Amino acid sequence: MKREDYLERILRARVYDVAIESPLELAPALSRRLHNRLLLKREDLQPVFSFKLRGAYNKMVNLAPQKLARGVIAASAGNHAQGVALAAQKLGCRAVIVMPVTVPRIKLDAVAARGAHVVLHGDSYDEACAHAMKLKRRMGLSFVHPYDDPDVIAGQGTVGMEILRQSDRPIDAVFVAVGGGGLISGIASYLKHLRPGIKVIGVEPTDADAMARSLKAGRRVKLDHVGLFADGVAVKEVGKETFRLCRKLVDEMVLVDTDEICAAIKDVFEDTRVVLEPAGALAIAGAKAWVERHGVSAKTLVAVASGANTNFDRLRFVAERAEVGEHREAVLAVTMPERRGSFRRFCGAIGSRSITEFNYRMAGAELAHIFVGVEARGRGETVRILRALRRAGFRTSDLSANEVAKAHVRHMVGGHSPLARHELLYRFEFPERPGALMKFLSAMNPGWNISLFHYRNHGADYGSILVGIQVPPREMGDFRRFLALLGYPASDETRNPAYRLFLK
After folding, report:
1. CA atoms within 13 A on the CB side of 319
2. Is 306 an annotated catalytic residue?
3. Is 95 contained in some domain?
């Protein structure tokens, strides 16, 4: 389909039966900090707190009457499901939504409240989608794709149409969260036709970067697994049509990590008093990273705040990680001699900076290892803290980017164990569902001992679990087969410096 065809589809798109024209608002505090004018396109204010209802409704309202009468089916972990449910309610048709069993209750209840029939199946979107396709054929329903459909893309493209209409100044760049690619494809199709000089920049999490990898490779790349913190964009493979459009229209991709997303959630809260979901804050995190990387100033930038369907339980994790993401906290490991005056010398090196966290355990007769958080003002401040501690004679490591340290080690007690021989340390992503841990234990060789275990609920569909397993070297082949049979995403952390300092 030609770009001109998408322009016509976007202009004809039927979205305002259910969607509002969301405001384009200045983020004053964030604009001052970035030395650029940053505008937020507030799609979090839609009736389902996400842009997804635009594409879902435009697809469904354009179905042939006989197809609409039979009903629709969709697969989703949340926002698309709510959009399809609202559209079906408005159009008076049947809607079946297949959702993973791990979906948070708040999202499930929101879909059911709009009259849709919810089917729970599988641990992931991919499993739910495969089941939805089976039900589609069996029940004769029309499938509403979350992103890889021209009518869905056109519906999302109305966001770009509104941005141009609402901005009173020329726009230099628009930042858009990317999952399957429907939103950025629609926005870029409109903007690049009418204002080709505007940069359209996609933003993905570092652990869910299917579009960035695909654009770099020149073909669609399927990820083995994706990070699930920003669950709204946790897509293993982008769409065929969205990839085709992004190859032609997207200027650049920016990747951000979990801490940067958390910092962006806090930034938007401070400007609007609204808490975005992780995927909803992705574009803001990308705009911040892009400004820092390119050193630009005095530009007009737009970031699409794409959704606010978050669980209250996640706020603890977001608050904890936002300071690190904003480079306002340095997370350090410090090795200190076990002798008088060491702690006083440590405090002298820290100076007037506030200590945000302090964890200590005696490591032996001569040394102690300290896990400490220190207030900082940017990356440069962290470098200065490290330099001051090392000048004072302390062996110091920066753990600010160490996921195991931040998610697990800082909450653990017990220190080193001489009994944990042949210990392997692995981080797993378990689905938050009954029986997940039992599946892990049942698949494991009963001769292997669990020597370390840490789990903390962060209100997400999946939980990160740190496990120490004692595996004799001769049984490593069996252990690798166990990992393959288990099927959960796993990372070998046996050589992680935080583990080796505090727990090994």
Report:
1. 6
2. yes
3. yes
